[in-house]
Amino acid sequence: MAIRRRLETDPDLDITSFMSLMTVLVPVLLLNMVFSHISVLNLNLPGLSDASAAEQKENQQLEMVLRAEYIDINYPAGIRVKRIPNRDGEPDLKLVSDVLQEIKRALRDKDIDKKDVVILSEPGTSYRTLVSAMDTARSFRAVVAASVVDAELFPQISLGDAPQQGDAAQDKQLAGNAL
């Protein structure tokens, strides 16, 4: 009896098509991958407080009221420092930043270290406008030692609803420079 032995040989794997698939698939997946950047804003929501009159006088609120046609900056709350009309249908945030810098300097000259601002917006205010106003109130770009840095203005931001617009006589009464 003759026994034949089979020669056991491993079959060759043809992986060229698989390698071609991986060569195309890996860059496509990497290009479509979403790189997300999460930023966190600490907001102070207005609450009820039982502060004494002396503390309220010492800690007067700085308000930025966002309206459809203009932005009012009030200090103390309700007393307008400056009304900044929109330019080309958009808020003039550059001028808002300049006014806030001027207020910060005036407060610093009076030895008041103010870091909070209340942003009051109308119900129809767009999200983009609100975030841009928050960024403008938080900091501004300054050149220090030949490099551009973000200088701090009012980093503690509180949000609220803007008061209803009054008549013209009341509007003129509120207009005044409190600084």
Entry keywords:
179 residues, two-stranded antiparallel sheet, protein transport, five-stranded mixed sheet, cell membrane, transmembrane transporter activity, Nucleotidyltransferase, domain 5, 22% strand, transmembrane helix, 7 strands, alpha/beta, ExbD
Brief summary:
The protein has 179 residues and is an alpha/beta fold. It has five helices and seven strands.
Structural notes for this entry:
By secondary structure, this protein is an alpha/beta fold. The protein has a domain of 106 residues: 2-Layer Sandwich (Nucleotidyltransferase, domain 5). Helix content is 33%, strand content 22%. It contains 5 helices and 7 strands, in the order H-H-E-E-E-H-E-H-E-E-E-H. The model has no long low-confidence stretch (mean pLDDT 79).
What's the helix and strand layout?
Blueprint: H1 16-32, H2 53-58, E1 63-66, E2 70-74, E3 80-85, H3 93-109, E4 116-121, H4 127-138, E5 139-144, E6 147-152, E7 156-161, H5 168-174
Helix pairs in contact: 3-4
GO molecular function: transmembrane transporter activity
Main location: membrane
Transmembrane segments: 15-35
Q: Distance between termini?
A: 116 Å
Structural class: alpha/beta
Whole-angstrom Rg: 30 Å
Give the helix level as a range of percent.
Answer: 25-40%
Number of strand elements: 7
Q: Give the helix tally.
A: 5
Question: Regarding CATH, which class of the domain at 59-164?
Answer: Alpha Beta
The biggest sheet amounts to: 5 strands, mixed
Task: Categorize the overall geometry.
Answer: elongated
Assign the CATH architecture of the domain at 59-164.
Answer: 2-Layer Sandwich
Strand order of the largest sheet: 3-2-1-4-7
Summed over residues and divided by their number, the pLDDT gives a mean of 79
